[in-house]
Amino acid sequence: MNYTYFGKTGLEVSKICLGTMTFGNEADEAMSFALMDHAASLGINFFDCAHNYNKGLTEEIVGRWLKPHRNEYIIATKVYFPYGGGRNDQGLSRRNIIASLERSLKRLQTEYVDILYLHHWDENCCLESSLSAVNTLMEAGKVHYLGISNFAAWQIATAQGICSRKGYEPVSCIQPMYSLVKRQAEVELLPLAAYEGMAVFPYNVIGAGLLTGKYLEGKEGRLTETEMYRQRYDNPQYVEVTRRFIDYASKHAYSPAALAAAWVLAHPTVTAPIIGARNLEQFQDTLGCLDINLSGEERDALSALSPEPPHATDREPLEAMKARGW
């Protein structure tokens, strides 16, 4: 296993982060333990959870496995989405952030988490109040680093500005959706992370299984089982990109899942992609990305299989302007 630095924190994390969202649902506890055992045997030292995954069962499973060797692993969890059914058991209010983290610590059987992500923008809450709550948890030693997921770039930049002005610990990492069919992160999120020195841990790197090609064969998976994912990837263009991608993978004798993850991993701003699985076969297949060293030309060829998102200002890149002359 290769390791890399987690942004500017000084910590080293494995180049793969184990995603745990299937734990307690598609993967029962025995399979979840097998997946964590296998990850550990490979040197993966970074696990990603969320307080709402499978109504808290995911964190309970991770906690039972983690307890004997807590200090060997970097653990992330998240707060925002509803949990518990109470009217105020959701969002980024100070009340919910602190209460949710306390519940997560109990389920994970740990005194701290390494990363607490704000899992989604809360339009009904003052961001400064949310960041103050995280700062309180940091000062208590219950959270070590602040992460943000599913925010727009301007929202992350606003959070970073508040942290700087108030003397809070900065945003250390972001967790965007990123794959060959979902490239919006390239427009502003990845450049922001590079400029600020934030770590980047992308999720959905194989497009909820779309880029494996299994849905082209009529097989089952998240896109057929979960309405959220069906809507997220309900775009005929994504199907065409997948067909081109599967053809490329076949011609070059790559596993599609491994190649899709390798494309994400090869982006210079990406720290470690989050890889989850329902079983060991899926996990081992995608982990083949570690054996694929894409050259710049190969990554460009793969990128050309999908539409490139427009520049953030909708102007041509500076290099093109220079080439044609002012």
Task: Give the arrangement of secondary structure elements.
Blueprint: E1 3-5, E2 12-14, E3 17-19, H1 29-42, E4 46-48, H2 57-66, E5 74-79, H3 94-108, E6 113-118, H4 127-139, E7 143-149, H5 153-166, E8 171-175, H6 189-196, E9 199-200, H7 222-225, H8 227-232, H9 236-251, H10 256-265, E10 274-275, H11 280-286, H12 296-303, H13 318-324
Parallel strand pairs: 3-4, 3-10, 4-5, 5-6, 6-7, 7-8, 8-9
Antiparallel strand pairs: 1-2
Model description:
The chain has 326 residues and is α/β, with parallel strands linked by helices. The chain has a domain at 3-175: NADP-dependent oxidoreductase domain (TIM Barrel). Helices cover 40% and strands 12% of the residues. It has 13 helices and ten strands. Strands 9-8-7-6-5-4-3-10 form an eight-stranded parallel sheet, with helices on one face. It has a two-stranded antiparallel ribbon with strand order 1-2. Helix 1 links the parallel strand 3 and strand 4. Helix 2 (57-66) crosses helix 3 and helix 3 packs parallel to helix 4 (127-139). The termini are far apart. The mean pLDDT is 95.
Radius of gyration: 20 Å
**What best-fitting shape do the alpha-carbon axes yield?**
globular
Biggest β-sheet strands, sense, barrel: 8 strands, parallel
Instruction: Encode the helix/strand succession as letters.
Output: EEEHEHEHEHEHEHEHHHHEHHH
State the total count of DSSP E strands: 10
Identify the CATH homologous superfamily of the domain at 3-175.
Answer: NADP-dependent oxidoreductase domain
User: Roughly how many Å apart are the termini?
Assistant: 48 Å
CATH architecture of the domain at 3-175: Alpha-Beta Barrel
Mean pLDDT: 95
Order of strands across the main sheet:
9-8-7-6-5-4-3-10
Low-confidence stretches: none
